[in-house]
């Protein structure tokens, strides 16, 4: 899963970047999409999407991520997964800033901005990147933190286990669907308010997939490393001792 997300994310990002630099492919949709969304503005949508984009600014996402990570660490007395969330947010901010300055792409015309001037660079969308990483990484960490316990309680009848696992899968699907919907709303808000091109948002989505893949890889490796001594102990306890093996051999003879 981690490798698939990383490869898919990198593929999307580099494909979009190539289209932007050559002004071809999906980049040809930037102006038509921008003009169409600007023409469809309404007072209600403007109020809602302005609130969305304000709350999901890179600064607010960083603050919310750090506060949630700290609360998680104190409440659950766990450091690893809260640190993963905070680390993912920090990497997102750093990568977004680096790519913006490296690509140097300008925003759409300032006359279309609805929340005042913004002279920052456009590619990728920092709002979309930060919000998407926060939502997807948080969903993964929450699901991963409760997944190993699903269907493993001793004393349960065999017939009850599939329903428990099915419930876990349903929760996971709903959580990631909500994360995807939230990402779409944030990305659309940046297009609607006039601050980004379509390709800025698409590139951010690719970067989000890559960062999420790295988080899953790191968490999986750490989980495997921590559980290795217990697995080895279980294997040793389940394996017959040398004395028992000799007795078993004598019995067969």
Number of domains: 1
- The secondary structure category is mainly alpha
* Main beta sheet: none
What are the secondary-structure elements, in order, as H or E?
Answer: HHHHHHHHH
Counting DSSP H or I runs of 4 or more residues, the number of helices is 9
Determine the strand fraction and express it as a percent band: under 5%
Shape: globular
What is the helix content?
A: over 70%
Features:
9 helices, mainly alpha, 253 residues, globular
Give your account of this protein's structure:
The protein has 253 residues and is mainly α. It has one domain. The protein has 9 helices and no strands. The protein starts with a helix and ends with a helix. 29% of the residues are buried.
Helices and strands in order, then pairings?
Elements: H1 2-22, H2 30-39, H3 43-55, H4 58-76, H5 80-103, H6 126-146, H7 161-192, H8 198-238, H9 242-252
Helix pairs in contact: 1-8, 3-7, 4-5, 4-6, 5-6, 5-8, 6-7, 6-8
